[in-house]
Protein backbone atom coordinates (compact mmCIF):
# COMPACT_ATOMS: atom_id res chain seq x y z
CA UNK A 1 0.00 0.00 0.00
CA UNK A 2 1.27 3.40 -0.72
CA UNK A 3 0.56 7.07 -0.46
CA UNK A 4 1.32 9.32 -3.38
CA UNK A 5 1.20 12.90 -4.52
CA UNK A 6 -0.80 13.84 -7.52
CA UNK A 7 1.17 14.84 -10.60
CA UNK A 8 0.27 18.41 -9.90
CA UNK A 9 2.42 18.98 -6.91
CA UNK A 10 5.83 17.79 -7.89
CA UNK A 11 7.29 21.02 -9.12
CA UNK A 12 10.29 20.99 -6.83
CA UNK A 13 11.59 17.55 -7.50
CA UNK A 14 14.43 18.54 -9.69
CA UNK A 15 17.04 19.55 -7.20
CA UNK A 16 19.77 17.18 -8.42
CA UNK A 17 20.06 18.33 -12.03
CA UNK A 18 19.84 21.95 -10.87
CA UNK A 19 22.92 21.63 -8.73
CA UNK A 20 24.84 20.00 -11.54
CA UNK A 21 23.85 22.62 -14.10
CA UNK A 22 24.63 25.48 -11.75
CA UNK A 23 28.10 24.12 -11.06
CA UNK A 24 28.91 23.69 -14.74
CA UNK A 25 27.78 27.21 -15.57
CA UNK A 26 29.72 28.77 -12.72
CA UNK A 27 32.84 26.91 -13.78
CA UNK A 28 32.66 28.16 -17.36
CA UNK A 29 32.13 31.73 -16.16
CA UNK A 30 34.97 31.79 -13.67
CA UNK A 31 37.66 29.67 -15.27
CA UNK A 32 37.73 30.96 -18.82
CA UNK A 33 40.51 33.52 -19.36
CA UNK A 34 39.25 36.94 -20.39
CA UNK A 35 41.12 38.55 -23.25
CA UNK A 36 42.04 42.20 -22.94
CA UNK A 37 42.49 43.20 -26.60
CA UNK A 38 38.83 43.18 -27.44
CA UNK A 39 37.32 45.26 -30.24
CA UNK A 40 34.06 45.35 -32.18
CA UNK A 41 34.45 43.09 -35.15
CA UNK A 42 31.14 43.14 -36.97
CA UNK A 43 28.31 45.65 -36.93
CA UNK A 44 25.97 42.72 -37.73
CA UNK A 45 26.82 41.17 -34.39
CA UNK A 46 25.76 44.34 -32.61
CA UNK A 47 22.53 44.31 -34.56
CA UNK A 48 21.94 40.77 -33.39
CA UNK A 49 22.70 41.67 -29.78
CA UNK A 50 20.22 44.55 -30.01
CA UNK A 51 17.52 42.42 -31.59
CA UNK A 52 17.76 39.76 -28.89
CA UNK A 53 17.85 42.15 -25.96
CA UNK A 54 21.53 42.04 -24.99
CA UNK A 55 22.13 45.68 -26.01
CA UNK A 56 19.82 48.69 -25.84
CA UNK A 57 18.57 50.01 -29.17
CA UNK A 58 18.82 53.76 -28.45
CA UNK A 59 20.83 55.41 -31.26
CA UNK A 60 22.61 52.09 -31.90
CA UNK A 61 25.64 53.46 -30.06
CA UNK A 62 27.37 51.22 -27.53
CA UNK A 63 30.71 51.50 -25.82
CA UNK A 64 33.17 48.62 -25.77
CA UNK A 65 32.37 47.64 -22.19
CA UNK A 66 28.65 47.36 -22.97
CA UNK A 67 29.28 45.18 -25.99
CA UNK A 68 31.68 42.98 -24.09
CA UNK A 69 29.15 42.43 -21.31
CA UNK A 70 26.49 41.65 -23.91
CA UNK A 71 28.73 39.14 -25.68
CA UNK A 72 29.55 37.44 -22.37
CA UNK A 73 25.88 37.14 -21.53
CA UNK A 74 25.13 35.73 -24.98
CA UNK A 75 27.98 33.22 -24.64
CA UNK A 76 26.73 32.17 -21.22
CA UNK A 77 23.23 31.45 -22.51
CA UNK A 78 24.67 29.68 -25.56
CA UNK A 79 27.08 27.38 -23.67
CA UNK A 80 30.12 28.93 -25.31
CA UNK A 81 33.34 29.83 -23.49
CA UNK A 82 32.56 33.14 -21.78
CA UNK A 83 35.30 35.38 -23.16
CA UNK A 84 33.44 38.54 -24.16
CA UNK A 85 35.11 38.23 -27.58
CA UNK A 86 33.28 38.01 -30.89
CA UNK A 87 35.23 34.95 -31.94
CA UNK A 88 34.35 32.59 -34.77
CA UNK A 89 32.29 30.25 -32.58
CA UNK A 90 30.26 33.16 -31.20
CA UNK A 91 29.53 34.61 -34.65
CA UNK A 92 28.58 31.15 -35.91
CA UNK A 93 26.22 30.68 -32.98
CA UNK A 94 24.51 33.96 -33.90
CA UNK A 95 23.64 32.47 -37.27
CA UNK A 96 21.98 29.36 -35.78
CA UNK A 97 18.23 28.98 -36.39
CA UNK A 98 16.40 30.14 -33.30
CA UNK A 99 13.32 31.68 -31.77
CA UNK A 100 12.81 35.39 -32.44
CA UNK A 101 11.86 36.22 -28.85
CA UNK A 102 14.44 38.27 -26.95
CA UNK A 103 16.70 36.48 -24.46
CA UNK A 104 16.55 39.54 -22.23
CA UNK A 105 15.72 38.62 -18.66
CA UNK A 106 16.19 34.88 -19.22
CA UNK A 107 19.30 34.70 -17.04
CA UNK A 108 17.61 36.49 -14.16
CA UNK A 109 14.38 34.50 -14.36
CA UNK A 110 16.35 31.29 -14.51
CA UNK A 111 18.41 32.28 -11.45
CA UNK A 112 15.13 32.89 -9.61
CA UNK A 113 13.82 29.51 -10.70
CA UNK A 114 16.91 27.74 -9.35
CA UNK A 115 16.59 29.73 -6.12
CA UNK A 116 12.98 28.58 -5.86
CA UNK A 117 13.89 24.97 -6.50
CA UNK A 118 16.48 25.09 -3.73
CA UNK A 119 14.45 26.96 -1.17
CA UNK A 120 10.85 26.20 -2.07
CA UNK A 121 9.96 29.88 -2.48
CA UNK A 122 10.25 32.57 -5.12
CA UNK A 123 12.66 35.45 -4.68
CA UNK A 124 10.71 38.23 -2.99
CA UNK A 125 11.09 40.73 -5.81
CA UNK A 126 10.73 38.08 -8.49
CA UNK A 127 7.68 39.28 -10.32
CA UNK A 128 8.60 42.96 -10.20
CA UNK A 129 12.05 42.61 -11.75
CA UNK A 130 11.02 40.44 -14.66
CA UNK A 131 11.05 41.55 -18.23
CA UNK A 132 11.83 45.21 -18.47
CA UNK A 133 10.96 45.67 -22.10
CA UNK A 134 8.21 43.11 -22.26
CA UNK A 135 6.59 44.29 -19.05
CA UNK A 136 2.86 44.06 -19.53
CA UNK A 137 -0.04 43.71 -17.21
CA UNK A 138 -0.30 40.06 -16.28
CA UNK A 139 2.58 37.78 -17.18
CA UNK A 140 0.52 34.64 -16.74
CA UNK A 141 -3.01 33.54 -17.44
CA UNK A 142 -5.42 33.77 -14.56
CA UNK A 143 -7.63 31.00 -15.84
CA UNK A 144 -6.93 27.33 -16.38
CA UNK A 145 -8.96 26.66 -19.49
CA UNK A 146 -7.58 28.33 -22.62
CA UNK A 147 -8.75 28.25 -26.21
CA UNK A 148 -6.53 28.46 -29.29
CA UNK A 149 -7.07 28.97 -32.99
CA UNK A 150 -4.90 28.24 -36.01
CA UNK A 151 -5.48 31.38 -38.05
CA UNK A 152 -3.83 30.25 -41.31
CA UNK A 153 -1.70 27.37 -42.55
CA UNK A 154 1.87 26.82 -43.69
CA UNK A 155 2.53 26.10 -47.35
CA UNK A 156 3.08 22.50 -48.37
CA UNK A 157 1.54 20.96 -45.23
CA UNK A 158 -2.04 19.70 -45.07
CA UNK A 159 -4.25 21.21 -42.35
CA UNK A 160 -5.11 17.80 -40.82
CA UNK A 161 -1.59 16.81 -39.74
CA UNK A 162 -0.78 20.40 -38.72
CA UNK A 163 -3.85 20.45 -36.49
CA UNK A 164 -2.80 17.17 -34.84
CA UNK A 165 0.77 18.40 -34.31
CA UNK A 166 -0.48 21.63 -32.71
CA UNK A 167 -2.82 19.69 -30.47
CA UNK A 168 0.07 17.41 -29.39
CA UNK A 169 2.22 20.47 -28.68
CA UNK A 170 -0.44 21.94 -26.37
CA UNK A 171 -0.85 18.55 -24.74
CA UNK A 172 2.81 18.52 -23.70
CA UNK A 173 2.10 21.54 -21.51
CA UNK A 174 -1.32 20.47 -20.27
CA UNK A 175 0.18 17.13 -19.15
CA UNK A 176 2.44 18.83 -16.63
CA UNK A 177 0.64 22.04 -15.71
CA UNK A 178 -3.03 21.38 -15.05
CA UNK A 179 -3.86 23.86 -17.82
CA UNK A 180 -6.42 22.71 -20.39
CA UNK A 181 -6.46 23.74 -24.06
CA UNK A 182 -9.21 23.57 -26.60
CA UNK A 183 -9.10 24.40 -30.29
CA UNK A 184 -11.76 26.69 -31.69
CA UNK A 185 -12.08 26.74 -35.49
CA UNK A 186 -13.08 30.40 -35.70
CA UNK A 187 -13.97 33.47 -33.68
CA UNK A 188 -12.18 34.82 -30.62
CA UNK A 189 -9.62 32.69 -28.79
CA UNK A 190 -7.03 33.18 -26.04
CA UNK A 191 -4.09 32.04 -28.18
CA UNK A 192 -3.75 32.48 -31.94
CA UNK A 193 -1.18 30.79 -34.17
CA UNK A 194 -0.47 32.41 -37.52
CA UNK A 195 2.05 32.28 -40.37
CA UNK A 196 3.46 35.54 -41.73
CA UNK A 197 6.17 36.64 -44.09
CA UNK A 198 8.59 39.55 -43.53
CA UNK A 199 7.16 42.62 -41.87
CA UNK A 200 3.76 41.90 -40.33
CA UNK A 201 2.90 44.86 -38.08
CA UNK A 202 4.96 43.69 -35.10
CA UNK A 203 7.65 46.37 -35.49
CA UNK A 204 10.77 46.28 -37.65
CA UNK A 205 12.81 44.19 -35.21
CA UNK A 206 10.16 41.45 -35.32
CA UNK A 207 10.02 41.27 -39.13
CA UNK A 208 10.67 37.75 -40.33
CA UNK A 209 13.95 37.18 -42.14
CA UNK A 210 13.28 34.40 -44.66
CA UNK A 211 14.58 30.84 -44.33
CA UNK A 212 16.84 30.28 -41.27
CA UNK A 213 17.55 32.88 -38.59
CA UNK A 214 14.42 33.62 -36.57
CA UNK A 215 11.88 30.85 -37.18
CA UNK A 216 8.98 32.10 -35.06
CA UNK A 217 8.17 34.33 -32.12
CA UNK A 218 5.41 34.71 -29.59
CA UNK A 219 4.14 37.13 -26.98
CA UNK A 220 3.83 36.70 -23.25
CA UNK A 221 0.39 36.63 -21.61
CA UNK A 222 -2.11 37.83 -22.14
CA UNK A 223 -1.51 38.79 -25.77
CA UNK A 224 -1.71 35.14 -26.81
CA UNK A 225 -0.07 35.40 -30.25
CA UNK A 226 2.44 32.98 -31.77
CA UNK A 227 3.78 33.90 -35.21
CA UNK A 228 5.68 31.59 -37.56
CA UNK A 229 7.84 32.58 -40.52
CA UNK A 230 5.89 31.52 -43.59
CA UNK A 231 9.14 31.48 -45.60
CA UNK A 232 10.59 28.56 -43.59
CA UNK A 233 10.42 25.06 -44.93
CA UNK A 234 8.15 23.58 -42.26
CA UNK A 235 7.99 19.86 -41.82
CA UNK A 236 6.31 17.36 -39.52
CA UNK A 237 8.05 14.11 -40.37
CA UNK A 238 10.88 14.90 -42.76
CA UNK A 239 14.55 15.49 -42.02
CA UNK A 240 14.84 18.59 -44.16
CA UNK A 241 13.39 21.83 -42.89
CA UNK A 242 12.28 22.79 -39.41
CA UNK A 243 9.93 20.67 -37.35
CA UNK A 244 6.69 22.55 -36.80
CA UNK A 245 5.70 20.50 -33.75
CA UNK A 246 8.90 21.37 -31.86
CA UNK A 247 8.75 25.07 -32.75
CA UNK A 248 5.05 25.26 -31.86
CA UNK A 249 5.66 23.58 -28.50
CA UNK A 250 8.39 26.15 -27.79
CA UNK A 251 6.26 29.15 -28.82
CA UNK A 252 3.34 27.91 -26.73
CA UNK A 253 5.74 28.04 -23.77
CA UNK A 254 6.09 31.81 -24.40
CA UNK A 255 2.34 32.33 -24.75
CA UNK A 256 2.02 30.75 -21.27
CA UNK A 257 4.60 33.18 -19.86
CA UNK A 258 7.87 31.22 -20.05
CA UNK A 259 11.20 32.90 -20.87
CA UNK A 260 14.15 31.33 -22.64
CA UNK A 261 16.08 28.77 -20.63
CA UNK A 262 19.86 28.42 -20.52
CA UNK A 263 19.51 24.68 -19.88
CA UNK A 264 20.91 22.81 -22.85
CA UNK A 265 18.32 20.52 -24.48
CA UNK A 266 15.42 22.20 -22.71
CA UNK A 267 12.49 23.01 -24.96
CA UNK A 268 12.67 26.66 -23.92
CA UNK A 269 16.29 27.01 -25.02
CA UNK A 270 16.28 29.78 -27.69
CA UNK A 271 17.84 27.52 -30.33
CA UNK A 272 15.96 25.25 -32.67
CA UNK A 273 15.96 21.65 -31.52
CA UNK A 274 15.20 18.73 -33.78
CA UNK A 275 12.58 16.23 -32.80
CA UNK A 276 14.66 13.45 -31.31
CA UNK A 277 14.41 10.47 -29.09
CA UNK A 278 14.81 12.42 -25.88
CA UNK A 279 11.81 13.76 -24.01
CA UNK A 280 10.56 17.04 -25.44
CA UNK A 281 10.07 18.75 -22.06
CA UNK A 282 13.09 18.86 -19.76
CA UNK A 283 12.98 19.16 -15.98
CA UNK A 284 13.58 22.90 -16.37
CA UNK A 285 10.58 23.39 -18.66
CA UNK A 286 8.36 21.48 -16.22
CA UNK A 287 9.69 23.41 -13.21
CA UNK A 288 9.11 26.70 -15.05
CA UNK A 289 5.48 26.09 -16.01
CA UNK A 290 4.64 24.58 -12.64
CA UNK A 291 6.10 27.59 -10.85
CA UNK A 292 3.88 29.89 -12.90
CA UNK A 293 0.75 27.78 -12.56
CA UNK A 294 1.00 26.56 -9.01
CA UNK A 295 -1.15 23.54 -8.46
CA UNK A 296 -3.76 22.54 -5.97
CA UNK A 297 -1.53 19.97 -4.27
CA UNK A 298 -4.05 17.18 -4.30
CA UNK A 299 -2.68 14.11 -2.56
CA UNK A 300 -3.71 10.63 -3.60
CA UNK A 301 -3.89 8.10 -0.78
CA UNK A 302 -3.91 4.44 -1.79
CA UNK A 303 -5.09 1.51 0.24
CA UNK A 304 -5.54 -1.92 -1.28
CA UNK A 305 -8.16 -1.59 -4.00
CA UNK A 306 -9.27 2.03 -3.37
CA UNK A 307 -7.80 5.52 -3.22
CA UNK A 308 -8.82 8.87 -1.75
CA UNK A 309 -8.13 12.34 -3.10
CA UNK A 310 -7.17 14.87 -0.43
CA UNK A 311 -7.27 18.55 -1.42
CA UNK A 312 -4.78 21.17 -0.21
CA UNK A 313 -7.41 22.25 2.33
CA UNK A 314 -7.57 18.71 3.75
CA UNK A 315 -10.92 17.77 2.19
CA UNK A 316 -11.09 14.05 1.59
CA UNK A 317 -13.00 12.42 -1.26
CA UNK A 318 -15.04 9.26 -0.86
CA UNK A 319 -12.99 6.09 -1.42
CA UNK A 320 -12.67 5.59 -5.17
CA UNK A 321 -12.09 2.19 -6.73
CA UNK A 322 -8.63 1.89 -8.26
CA UNK A 323 -9.88 -0.22 -11.14
CA UNK A 324 -12.34 2.46 -12.19
CA UNK A 325 -9.52 4.90 -12.96
CA UNK A 326 -6.83 2.38 -13.90
CA UNK A 327 -8.47 -0.54 -15.60
CA UNK A 328 -6.58 -3.87 -15.65
CA UNK A 329 -4.97 -3.28 -12.25
CA UNK A 330 -5.18 -6.20 -9.84
CA UNK A 331 -7.63 -5.90 -6.97
CA UNK A 332 -5.08 -4.68 -4.45
CA UNK A 333 -1.70 -3.06 -5.08
CA UNK A 334 1.43 -2.89 -2.93
CA UNK A 335 3.09 0.30 -4.11
CA UNK A 336 2.19 3.20 -6.41
CA UNK A 337 4.14 6.18 -7.64
CA UNK A 338 3.75 9.02 -10.11
CA UNK A 339 6.78 10.09 -12.14
CA UNK A 340 6.89 13.72 -13.35
CA UNK A 341 9.75 12.71 -15.65
CA UNK A 342 7.47 10.87 -18.08
CA UNK A 343 4.10 11.88 -16.52
CA UNK A 344 3.23 8.25 -15.89
CA UNK A 345 1.82 6.23 -13.05
CA UNK A 346 3.63 3.12 -11.83
CA UNK A 347 1.98 0.39 -9.77
CA UNK A 348 3.65 -2.58 -8.15
CA UNK A 349 2.14 -5.81 -6.91
CA UNK A 350 3.83 -9.17 -6.36
CA UNK A 351 6.14 -9.89 -9.24
CA UNK A 352 4.74 -7.34 -11.68
CA UNK A 353 4.80 -3.65 -12.68
CA UNK A 354 1.97 -1.72 -14.37
CA UNK A 355 2.55 1.61 -16.11
CA UNK A 356 -0.21 4.04 -17.14
CA UNK A 357 -0.35 7.20 -19.25
CA UNK A 358 -3.30 8.91 -17.61
CA UNK A 359 -5.76 6.06 -17.28
CA UNK A 360 -4.47 3.99 -20.21
CA UNK A 361 -2.24 1.00 -19.57
CA UNK A 362 0.93 1.32 -21.65
CA UNK A 363 1.55 -1.37 -24.27
CA UNK A 364 3.79 -4.18 -23.04
CA UNK A 365 2.57 -3.87 -19.44
CA UNK A 366 2.33 -5.42 -16.92
CA UNK A 367 5.99 -6.38 -16.97
CA UNK A 368 7.79 -8.76 -14.67
CA UNK A 369 9.79 -7.05 -11.91
CA UNK A 370 12.63 -9.54 -12.40
CA UNK A 371 12.92 -8.38 -16.05
CA UNK A 372 13.74 -4.90 -14.75
CA UNK A 373 16.09 -6.30 -12.11
CA UNK A 374 13.73 -5.26 -9.30
CA UNK A 375 12.60 -7.13 -6.16
CA UNK A 376 9.08 -8.58 -5.84
CA UNK A 377 6.64 -7.16 -3.27
CA UNK A 378 8.28 -3.73 -2.74
CA UNK A 379 7.46 -1.91 0.52
CA UNK A 380 7.00 1.41 -1.26
CA UNK A 381 8.02 3.30 -4.39
CA UNK A 382 8.57 6.98 -5.19
CA UNK A 383 10.15 9.16 -7.84
CA UNK A 384 13.25 10.78 -6.35
CA UNK A 385 14.30 13.95 -8.16
CA UNK A 386 17.89 14.18 -6.82
CA UNK A 387 18.59 10.85 -8.55
CA UNK A 388 16.24 11.41 -11.48
CA UNK A 389 14.95 7.87 -11.04
CA UNK A 390 12.31 5.81 -9.26
CA UNK A 391 13.34 4.39 -5.88
CA UNK A 392 11.89 1.19 -4.39
CA UNK A 393 12.34 0.19 -0.75
CA UNK A 394 12.28 -3.50 0.12
CA UNK A 395 13.27 -4.61 3.63
CA UNK A 396 16.86 -3.62 4.45
CA UNK A 397 17.65 -2.59 0.85
CA UNK A 398 16.57 -0.20 -1.86
CA UNK A 399 16.65 -0.36 -5.66
CA UNK A 400 16.82 2.41 -8.25
CA UNK A 401 14.79 2.04 -11.44
CA UNK A 402 15.88 4.00 -14.50
CA UNK A 403 12.62 5.04 -16.16
CA UNK A 404 14.19 5.49 -19.61
CA UNK A 405 15.61 1.97 -19.82
CA UNK A 406 13.15 0.36 -17.37
CA UNK A 407 16.15 -1.40 -15.84
CA UNK A 408 17.60 -1.26 -12.37
CA UNK A 409 20.62 1.04 -12.22
CA UNK A 410 23.96 -0.76 -11.88
CA UNK A 411 25.32 -1.37 -8.37
CA UNK A 412 21.85 -1.58 -6.84
CA UNK A 413 20.19 -2.72 -4.60
CA UNK A 414 22.10 -0.96 -1.86
CA UNK A 415 21.62 -0.83 1.88
CA UNK A 416 18.81 1.31 3.27
CA UNK A 417 21.36 2.85 5.65
CA UNK A 418 22.14 5.33 2.82
CA UNK A 419 18.86 7.01 3.85
CA UNK A 420 20.06 8.19 7.24
CA UNK A 421 17.34 7.77 9.85
CA UNK A 422 14.78 6.01 7.63
CA UNK A 423 13.45 2.78 9.18
CA UNK A 424 12.75 -0.50 7.41
CA UNK A 425 9.27 -1.51 6.35
CA UNK A 426 7.80 1.87 5.38
CA UNK A 427 4.72 1.26 3.27
CA UNK A 428 4.04 4.68 1.78
CA UNK A 429 6.02 7.61 0.41
CA UNK A 430 5.30 11.00 -1.10
CA UNK A 431 7.17 14.18 -1.98
CA UNK A 432 5.76 17.54 -0.89
CA UNK A 433 6.06 20.75 -2.96
CA UNK A 434 8.98 21.83 -0.75
CA UNK A 435 10.94 18.82 -2.07
CA UNK A 436 10.89 16.91 1.23
CA UNK A 437 10.11 13.23 1.18
CA UNK A 438 7.60 11.76 3.63
CA UNK A 439 7.70 8.06 4.47
CA UNK A 440 4.92 6.26 6.30
CA UNK A 441 4.52 3.09 8.36
CA UNK A 442 1.35 2.40 10.29
CA UNK A 443 0.53 5.56 12.30
CA UNK A 444 4.02 6.99 12.03
CA UNK A 445 5.75 9.17 9.50
CA UNK A 446 9.33 10.21 8.82
CA UNK A 447 10.39 13.32 6.95
CA UNK A 448 13.53 13.06 4.85
CA UNK A 449 15.31 16.19 3.68
CA UNK A 450 17.04 15.62 0.30
CA UNK A 451 19.30 18.65 0.78
CA UNK A 452 20.57 17.55 4.22
CA UNK A 453 20.34 13.90 3.09
CA UNK A 454 18.89 12.75 6.37
CA UNK A 455 15.66 12.33 8.28
CA UNK A 456 14.68 15.62 9.91
CA UNK A 457 11.38 14.88 11.65
CA UNK A 458 9.13 12.04 12.70
CA UNK A 459 5.72 11.79 14.33
CA UNK A 460 2.12 10.63 14.04
CA UNK A 461 0.80 11.55 10.62
CA UNK A 462 -2.89 11.66 11.55
CA UNK A 463 -2.26 14.34 14.20
CA UNK A 464 0.72 16.21 12.77
CA UNK A 465 0.06 16.44 9.03
CA UNK A 466 -3.12 18.31 8.27
CA UNK A 467 -2.69 17.90 4.49
CA UNK A 468 -3.41 14.19 4.93
CA UNK A 469 -6.97 15.09 5.81
CA UNK A 470 -7.26 13.23 9.15
CA UNK A 471 -6.89 16.11 11.59
CA UNK A 472 -10.06 16.85 13.56
CA UNK A 473 -11.53 13.56 12.47
CA UNK A 474 -12.25 10.48 14.52
CA UNK A 475 -9.01 8.59 14.62
CA UNK A 476 -9.38 5.53 12.48
CA UNK A 477 -6.24 3.64 13.35
CA UNK A 478 -4.26 2.30 10.46
CA UNK A 479 -6.97 2.76 7.94
CA UNK A 480 -5.05 4.54 5.26
CA UNK A 481 -1.67 2.90 5.09
ZN1 LIG B 1 11.56 31.41 -27.77
ZN1 LIG C 1 4.93 38.54 -35.24
UniProtKB/TrEMBL annotation:
Ca(2+) 1 binds at residue 232. Ca(2+) 3 binds at residues 209-210, 229, 232. GO terms for cellular component: extracellular matrix; extracellular space. GO terms for biological process: collagen catabolic process; extracellular matrix organization; proteolysis. Signal peptide: none annotated. Binds 2 Zn(2+) ions per subunit. Can bind about 5 Ca(2+) ions per subunit. Keywords: Calcium, Hydrolase, Metal-binding, Metalloprotease, Protease, Repeat, Zinc, Zymogen. GO terms for molecular function: metalloendopeptidase activity; zinc ion binding. Residues 137-295 form the Peptidase metallopeptidase domain. The modification Phosphotyrosine is found at residue 412. Hemopexin repeats lie at residues 330-376, 423-470. PROSITE patterns: HEMOPEXIN_2 (PS51642). Ca(2+) 2 binds at residue 190. Ca(2+) 4 binds at residue 379. Belongs to the peptidase M10A family. This is Peptidase metallopeptidase domain-containing protein. It comes from Oncorhynchus tshawytscha (Chinook salmon). The gene is MMP28.
